[in-house]
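Before relying on records like the one below, remember that each one covers exactly one chain. Contacts with other chains, cofactors or solvent are not represented anywhere in the record.
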Amino acid sequence: MSGAGQFCAVARSLDILGGRWTLLIIRELLCGSERFNDIRRGVPRISRTMLSERLQMLAHVGAIARTEGSSGPEYVLTSAGMELLGIIEELGLWGQRWLPRQAHAEDLDLEPLLIDMRRRVNFAALPNEPLVVRLEFDGHRPSYLLLRQTEASLCHHNPGYPELISLGGPLAVLVAWWRGDLGFREAQRSGLRLEGPRPLVHAFPSWFDRYMFANVEPAAGQDSVPLKLVKPA
């Protein structure tokens, strides 16, 4: 593959990291994914072939190491790969501050959002007894989030625990809340549905530490609240 043809370290780094998907793969590894399928769930639009090629390239330059785990190959960041944390953080801060936030107009995937929610569960705030949150978002088949004080898991079927909470509505509204564009009550007024026993419904937002950049305010002149997402009932 032809590169930029420059000695500059910026150009040489972009030859490796500037391709589509590469930094998202690094993001997934930084967030704890180690297996091929786990990485792909966080970047669902990448093909298996492309993911394999990107992982091989990152291993070739020494940013990741491939090891044999108990369930097959695993990928871990090396010291060189860990240094990319600062780049990922700065990209996130820049995007949260400067890019318009209008979730209803964005091309959104549900699974990466649910994976981020699972990663950012506030276990200390969960009820003592395990429960399942039924997830029913418009245009998507139901899925289930198992929450207990030692585990958070996404499932395609209820794993056998009480299904006490149901969360649904437009995906764009969930994105707007999770990203910090809307407060939870604003999201509910915009169509996010949360049903279940009142104490659990009241406590639900505290069960999660929202998206890691949710507290970053937009720059002056940038959209801070999406346009109206749904028509009032």
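DSSP finds ten helices and seven strands in the chain.
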